[in-house]
Model the fold of this input.
Amino acid sequence: MRKVDIVVIGGGAAGLAAAIAAHEAGCKDLLIIEREGELGGILNQCIHNGFGLHVFKEELTGPEYADRYIRKVEDLHIPYMTGTFVIDIKDGIVTTVNEKGLEKIEYGAVVLATGCRERPRGALMVPGSRVAGIYTAGTAQKMINRMGLMPGRKVVILGSGDIGLIMARRMTLEGAKVEAVLEIMPYSSGLARNVTQCLNDFNIPLMLSHTVTAVHGTGRVSGVTIAEVDAQRNPIPSTQRDLECDTLLLSVGLIPENELARAAGVGMSPVTQGAIVDQNLATDIKGIFQCGNSLHVHDLVDKVSIESERAGRQAAAYVSRGRTSGNTTSIKDGQGVSGCVPGLLRGKPDAPIDIMFRPRGFYRNANVQIFCDGKQVLSVKKTVLAPGEMAEISLKPEIIPADTQEILIAVESKQ
Done:
């Protein structure tokens, strides 16, 4: 058995940024473990541009963005293992398996940067036979961008997540006809810029408050039945109609990849499906940190990198100084707020606390209000809040009274 100060699980944007930050913070004994055959994660198949505007102040494609971090890892001589699965984290030991066999690694700290996966058809309960031609949007993206395969020629996309929007454009550029993008909610769940650049610019219809009620075909998809939904998201029978297609792409949400965290006994948030972490991105299990899309699903990879750098620095600080102690303050979702991260403060913060959350609806000219044990301490004006875009506020430590038990974040609309 070998011993490593910090083990980073995941070699995508989050894991690479965390490892580099930990190294630069003074922890040189690192190891990155990646289950795929190469570093870079999902970025390797995201050949569209729009990455790097916040971190590098220039527009890059996904592979270009990943390459910058991979080169830095190699320049710093940070060791990594690819094609390696982590099967267990227990009692300060990470158990891995690859083509060489089983290996146990003793660690000082672990950074979980395992990313997320797409919600599959089975989670939707859409009636119909198990025919070919139904893919998650990310699978179709990998087929086209990395394997040179065309999933289909006449496409319906269910869900308006960012990957689905991007694939609507990609399929169109490759010669397919995208009949429609259907969204069960009355608003798009993707970024506004992607709705404009991927749908509007290509005259692809976005049908809000619509869903697929049936899949047709023998052997392969031949069409789908779509319908408008009511306020409770139930299909309205009188609005049903058939759309002919040979491919159905699903872009119906991302689920943080957290089997390892749950098996290790980490406390999980039922809202974000990630760990409950403090301001240092530390979980309730000593020595285990989490960041990136395994913690909560982000809109931008730049934000993933920035957050993960903090996790790497804090993991390095933990290895050298131990865990922060002191009063624990919970951070709760109030009216109009969903999935606050971090979920708690541990000890007296010595730097501003950045809290990220998703609005539960559309708000214009709204105030984000912060309450400490029921008393309002701050109100931040926001011109627009939308469910498809992460909101962020920063709390200065001095506005949080000593021994505060609960911080509540809420949205008050001026309309």
Observations:
- The first strand starts at residue 2 and ends at 9.
- The chain has three domains: 1-118+254-324, 120-252, 325-415.
